[in-house]
Amino acid sequence: MTNYLETKISDIADPDFQTMVKELCHCVAWDPTQFGDRTLRFLLMAIGKEDPKCLSEQYLPAPGILTRKLDKLSPESVVYHVCWELVNLNRTRIESFDGKKVLSLIKTCSKIYCRKLVRAKKLTGNQLRHEFQTALIVRRRQNGDL
User: Fold this and answer.
1) Residue 87 included in any domain
2) What are the angstrom distances between the C-alpha of 137 and each of 101, 129, 146?
3) Among the listed ranges 31-35, 56-60, 98-102, which one has the minimum average pLDDT value?
4) How many domains does the chain fold into?
5) Cα–Cα nearest to 20, from 74, 63, 84
């Protein structure tokens, strides 16, 4: 079975898949040709880093692949397999997205590619004092004071 998320976008000749990529690029006002040698995973990560809020129906030109309901897709289609891979990466079941649109599935499951960095916690007063004391002891030992 082909891993569509890791395959170059230009290598997948399915017209529905190419239409889906064009619609995703249209959401963020990018040229789809610049992602021809990249993977779908890279495209989803770039959209997530650039503006994840743009993945909504108001940015789509007309009803297309992304506005189709998931249960209306053929199980043999490439778009269905892409959705299946995204759902598996998100560790959920594809049945939980029945009745939902492909765009909402991509929006939900593509968050695994653009996780936010965890902010470092501030040290407490005791931790800061301990670090200062240990650094002071190390400095004294290097100077030969102790």
Assistant:
1) yes
2) 62, 12, 8
3) 56-60
4) 1
5) 63
Question: What's the domain range around 65?
Answer: 9-119
What's the 3-state SS for the chain?
CCCCCCCEHHHCCCHHHHHHHHHHHHHCCCCHHHHCCCEHHHHHHHHHHHCHHHCCHHHCCCCCCCCCEHHHCCCCCHHHHHHHHHHHHCCCCHHHHCCCEHHHHHHHHHHHHCCCCCCCCCCCHHHHHHHHHHHHHHHHHHHCCC
139: pLDDT strictly greater than 70: yes
Give the position of tokens 């009803």: 63
In a domain, 143, yes or no: no
Rounded CA-CA distance 46/43 in Å is 5
Q: Which of 39, 32, 48, 38 is nearest to 3 (CA)?
A: 39
Global pTM reads 0.68
Measuring CA to CA, how many Å separate 59 from each of 27, 63, 105, 120?
Answer: 5, 11, 16, 35
Q: What is the structure's pLDDT at 92?
A: 84
